[in-house]
């Protein structure tokens, strides 16, 4: 897993940059046709065979080899369909790097029956994605629960398994899109450094190669090799199909048997992957020189595979060393200001993998000193063994996240792809069991076994007289390992909740505390008895907040760094013990709190959150660490094309005076603001503004409304704000058109952003038409006009889109379009974006486009309301605006009533490319146009 020292909510795996993709449809095979007269009909495919059932997840296997996992849960009105193929970059041969990822893109280019997969996904209001990694490729989608949607998703996936085009014309256009994605990765020096370290650490195994592949292979792979790769690996006997959510298990299994069972088992034998990385025989070093603003350090060690018993201890070791503020590397590097941040990178892989430690170091600090300190800390584990307290803290955090994830089948469905690729989905549960039994001796043993100087890669070769090699164990026999595995009891189910606005309103109660805080409560039974909270406290006014943006930001960020009763570490430990994910953020006008926990712990969590908000301790050392992290984050963006362009665009369209909270600072101005801020400034800001006189709190999930309301009133009811809140308006400002080009040297990828301010509010009669128009133009799925032209047809951009917004309080909105692209394609990109917008303004959209867009948009809104965290935020926002979900229901009715003429008229009236502000940032000095000058 990848961890960052200042991630307060959870530890998440960082997958490669991959764009949205959808679920695939299936055709009947010729084998299903009636037999000729006089001959017996083909036998009905044999029934699926049950393999095992563990903790509510049941595995079956079809005669053709397809494995099926069913995880029913009636709690949410959605279905997750996830198809995992056991193929990733580990399976690629010489000249084929990136082939699995290329196929991930081409699998969405259609089949003879389904020429526009993106449109079909959009029309069903689905959320979809796909990703390629070392050991697997997966395609998943989340859709409103219905028999029709499940049938469609299964049939599409089966059709795509055997009938995808994988055509030369699609490869020609998509290759440039993938190359653009490759170039985007090349813009990240820390990511490139990690890849260079791995390529040096692995001499033979494909884990040393980046999943996206080499540029040469991306550009030159022959279509026949790609087609052969597809025919080899995209077959039922090399795949796992998982269905999770609200569905009838027996009916779903019957559908799967009918749809996928008709696909014959292939006659080919899967290639055997036999490369084994030998034990490393000496420290290796690599030096990377690139443009950037923050130095970086990475140290990697070879470690066992996911199936090996040591893997859980290795993961715990990474957390113990890097977690903030208890981590040993965090204390040695961040607290001493030798580094701005530290983190670790560990993955549960099929074959022996790696554990990497990383640090960001500001240019004013010594990279050599940071390296010496990191290596001394790692090498010092022999003299300073891992303690029981450190292991117990890591176990509590791991088990909290595992339990909360198990309460959400859609999370589990996607998570299981990683473990399927590692050898078996049950390894996910076995790993949890291993975590529970971890002892300090286990972690200390693996630290001494694998964190050896001869087993690490920092980058120059250093010979040693007495090599001390770490022999990494082979992957165990997973089948034997899990033969009799039963797991724990399945988590209790929640209710089947209707996420319609009317039902939500019928079950929501709203009230106001004596001090002014507004409260919305929506109790419902949830899987695992989870409950989420969204809270916003508002303060300040335009005049009194001048020049206080940085101080306000620091004040909010300091809240979770210690109270008068608990240190930062004690807070983290207590939230982990209470199985709570808590995030606090804020700025000059408000502070927001997000919480996810379980019913039995809600009272204690609320009390601890109140302590965080009302009793901060203001430790001086924490403020200094926080400032260093802010410095590094700001400096890191100074040369990135997207950050440079967005900053320039935002400054242009928000011309407020310096010091105003609406003013957009340059990176240098932001650095000066944070440098000038003091602990006393932050403490004073808190004392002058914080309170609950104006704010909103919403709770959604499994809780006792009466007891919870009493708790909330006791904790926040009389907490007064020292100053009255006065909303700061953001009136419409007409900005003259402009076109600005900014140079960001040595960056392979460029960024384009263009748009205008709009004199419109979200209750304007034209706003529904603008929203749906933007959904079709660039705001929806990859079937939007921008995506179809710029990405699908011309292959100019991996990421392209648009967004329209309007304030609910001021007549002020905006339209913005954007794209990443290669600098040499600047003129083509800009022309394509302009032409597509002009075409919409001139010709509008077809009635069929509008009908499909309505369907997709409205189903998407329904899916959003089915997510408890999103629903809590919506209810809290409605309290501030004085709106209920009846407003949303009315808005959706207006969307449903729109005609193509309505949308065309609104787009022509409000969007005018002649008024656009355009900003481009990239390394344009090396383009043909620049060379010709």
Euclidean distance between termini CA atoms: 48 Å
Largest sheet, spatial ordering of strands: 2-3-4-8-5-7-6
What is Rg? 28 Å
Biggest β-sheet strands, sense, barrel: 7 strands, mixed
Total domains: 4
CATH superfamily of the largest domain: Metalloenzyme, LuxS/M16 peptidase-like
CATH topology of the largest domain: Cytochrome Bc1 Complex, Chain A, domain 1
The oligomeric status of these chains comes to: single chain
Based on helices, strands and strand pairing, what is the structural class? alpha+beta
> Can you tell me the CATH architecture of the largest domain?
2-Layer Sandwich
* Overall CATH class of the largest domain: Alpha Beta
What is the share of helical residues? Answer: 40-55%
In percent, how much strand structure appears in the residues? 15-25%
Q: What's the total number of strands?
A: 23
Number of helices: 33
Stretches where pLDDT is under 50 for at least 5 consecutive residues are 1-43, 460-464
Indicate the mean pLDDT: 90
Shape: globular
